[in-house]
Amino acid sequence: MSIDHVSKYKFNIGDSVLYGTDTITTQKKIGDLKDVFQNEGERSTMNQESIVYSVSLLQPVKAGTIGGLFIGTSIIEQGQVDKEYYMTKGHFHQNTSSSEFYWGTHGSGMVLMMKQDRSFHIEHMSPGSIHFIPAETAHRVINTGNEKLIFNACWPADAGYDYDTIYNEGFSCRIFNHNGSPTIIETDKR
Ligand code: PAN
Ligand code: ZN
């Protein structure tokens, strides 16, 4: 028998951000998000080095491992491209039967979930909210609050990512700051 006195993986109790030596962090800057926001002209003239979101990831098993799990913290900065709030790119999973949990830990926003038939629904995210993302459902998070939005996610290690479908077809709605309130605009195309 052996007892590990210090767990290998940790998160801050305050905002649930994961940390530790095995954490891999990636950043998405304005310059990485070509054609993600509706006003591409505006995005291309903004500071390309400005961070929109970052993800800190723990991968206890190799990507593709059947039965494995990943966990990650996403931090979306507060900001807008023109009037569209900062948000994640969003994706379907490559393994379409994979589902996922998101849970909010700081700030507020919206989880946009879209089925393959492009029907969508939106859930409000705030500290303590849990969101189940079913199989065959694209997902994106939008920071509609007035501070950073932080959430955690847990998903199968063999889920993979399909970004191309969203890149080519977009989501069927976008969320804009209209006079200080989040407003959902249905858009059949990006
Ligand atoms: C999350 C997302 C993360 C960043 O960990 O990957 O929030 O969003 P994009 O991947 O859409 O840029 C997740 O859904 N993993 O499956
Ligand atoms: Zn996902």
What is the CATH class designation?
Mainly Beta
Q: In whole angstroms, how far apart are the ends?
A: 56 Å
Identify low-pLDDT runs: none
Bound molecules: 5-phospho-D-arabinohydroxamic acid, zinc ion
Overall 3D form:
globular
* Major β-sheet profile: 6 strands, antiparallel
Estimate what percentage of residues fall within beta strands.
35-45%
Into how many domains do the coordinates divide?
A: 1
With strands numbered from the N-terminus, the spatial order across the biggest sheet is 3-4-5-13-8-11
Q: Helicity, in percent? A: under 10%
Summarize the model shown.
With 190 residues, this protein is mainly β. Helices cover 6% and strands 42% of the residues. The strands form five sheets. A six-stranded antiparallel sheet has the order 3-4-5-13-8-11, with no helix packed on it. Strands 10-9-12 form a three-stranded antiparallel sheet, with no helix packed on it.
Textual characterization of the structure:
The model has no long low-confidence stretch (mean pLDDT 94). With 190 residues, the protein is mainly beta. The strands form 5 sheets. Strands 3-4-5-13-8-11 form a 6-stranded antiparallel sheet, with no helix packed on it. It has a 3-stranded antiparallel sheet with strand order 10-9-12, with no helix packed on it. Strands 1-2 form a two-stranded antiparallel sheet. It is built from 2 helices and 15 strands. The termini are far apart. The protein has one domain: Sandwich (Jelly Rolls), CATH 2.60.120.
